[in-house]
């Protein structure tokens, strides 16, 4: 690039020129600018230092190293002279890398795990969750006097046992002795750095307090302390026993042994799974499920086909209507064109998410305007019948999309030189031939990148689908929550974020399938447009 | 039929007016126009009428403009369960901050791509084109999980915070916007920079005081497009913002009418009108620039 571009600094500057430029640069920057720069970097560094401190406390070494490295690089870039491109690119690139490129990589990673409801923590957390969920109060448990403490929103128990020994613990850290507690009548009531909850506070946070189980010791089999009233706690023992050596969970009441079989949960010999389990790497399981399980494969295929059909038909219908209107209104003899133009732009100016919601109301089966008023009280299931829902979606998308195509086509038509048309007319071409052989090819060249962009947009047109039909009507035969009008992105959203079981792993696997599809389609599309451009050169 | 641009001269004034000729030339165009105006404007009239209807239901909204009152506006603004004013403020705040920062980050990048020659420049530009093929919402699951991890460590910028949401949006700041701006920056002659440099201006001064002013039209277009895109976003906002008083209009209004048959349809319509009016006014006012910006990408 350096040698081909001639507009700016075509050749590499000599050392003298470079030094002269440096001096000029340094001399021209005002004191204010330098102070501003130092202040801004100071703020960034202060935030970074705070972040590093928090990460240090949480012992997140990988993130700690990354943040530290980025901070050093940023300071180096802005404090050393030169490196101008880096100075201008760094802020945007940081956000791009974290929230666009990294998250794509992370999606790929999640696609290979069983991350889902019931499998969202590590094994140790799953064990403690299991143990605390099956807890029963020990019948002869002594009463432990407790004071509920709050530190930055996290609740802890300050416990005085019947022998007068004081200890502190929270959901994550087992009871540990403390000796600097404030005592009142032999009972610990406060601790420096913590706020003791008042009676009103306890009432306000009852559900949080009664749910809190503080482990008695490091060994989960020792049980936990729980309180119902915020003043007296009792020992609760789990009916489950965890055997660390054998890595098994035993239900003390039934005697069933659940063992870790590598599926991310404790499983009994009968195949019964104990939830919550934990997150493990499952390799290509999610993809295998997507392509082999009948209840997922069939909807995945139909959703993919509908996504492509929907996007292609949306582009085609909006483009042809837009082009038709552009031709109709591109006649200078016609009066009031400006009025029509403004009226037709209205759907484009109205926020898209609102349009879908308004149409959903208008197309409602029993109460909507279309059925009740236009069709005189008919009960046509516009949004709940599989095929009618698809037609409704395309119609609404036509309403949403034709103004854009109209504007674009009008612009493209007007930029075609009139001499071409005149020359063709003189040569005896009929209007239709002029349009088909001259105007349309020229128009397509300038509009085709926008058609591709429009296809890409509709390929992921989540708002329209989700707000108009919610993807429905639901496909009853499918094992995942999908419907007849779902497109890929709305299926990902529904699998990951709606319903009782949220399956992040499967949703991410679907996302990766979309990534691959989009990549293939864009490669093909770009090849095609290049061919088109060369054709007309 | 000599020239199309001076139609009044072409038609001989003596020829009598006949409906058939008028219809054949321009009349049918008006017919098409009329149909399209009804198709385009009707749903908007319907919302307006529904919003003025004091009764709440969907059925009640079917008789257009039968009753006119502002009760539903009062209702949407005063019901505590639907903090509409809060949603409105949140949307303006989130979309405004995002679009300003997007413009700023994008302009910085476009300036360096347009004015500087460095290794990786071409690769960088190509990356920007490629990245826009994969919109953020495809990675929404990963974004949610990343933000919840960040929230565990730094509650102020993690899940359920507006700062976190803005940060996620800024991940898309470089991309199609930068490409649009890059094209526009290239149309500003480099001799202006050079003249300023000879006069002793630093690169920062050239950028902030000269270039940014010259490219103001494209900054406005990109800012507005980014504002509209952010306002319309439902996926990321609905996943990241949990508390009702932190949510945006798209999320809040969707929840309000997720089942239109039983929703307070008039209140929703009133909210929709209030939300849409500023956007539409701005859009129609800046129409020319937006249309120019939309087709700017098609030149290359």
Structure in words:
The complex is a heterodimer of chains A (537) and B (300). Chain A is 56% helix and 12% strand. Chain A is of the alpha+beta class. Chain A has three domains: 22-110, no CATH class; 123-274, no CATH class; 291-535, MetI-like (MetI-like fold, Orthogonal Bundle), CATH 1.10.3720. In chain A, strands 1, 2, 3, 4, 5, 8, 9, 10 and 11 form a nine-stranded antiparallel sheet that branches. Chain A has a five-stranded antiparallel sheet with strand order 12-13-14-15-16, covered by helices on one side. In chain A, a hairpin with a 5-residue loop joins strand 13 (248-251) and strand 14 (257-260). In chain A, helix 9 (294-328) packs parallel to helix 13 (386-414), helix 13 packs across helix 15 and helix 15 (431-459) runs antiparallel to helix 18. Chain A is extended and about 110 Å long. Chain A starts with 14 loop residues before the first helix and ends with a helix. Mean pLDDT of chain A is 83; it is low at 1-10. Chain B has 300 residues and is mostly helical. Chain B contains 15 helices and no strands. The longest helix of chain B is centred in the N-terminal third of the chain and has 34 residues, at 19-52. Mean pLDDT of chain B is 85; it is low at 1-6. The chains are: A alpha+beta (537), B mainly alpha (300). Chains A and B meet through helix 1, helix 2, helix 4, helix 10 and helix 11 of A and helix 2, helix 4, helix 5, helix 6 and helix 7 of B.
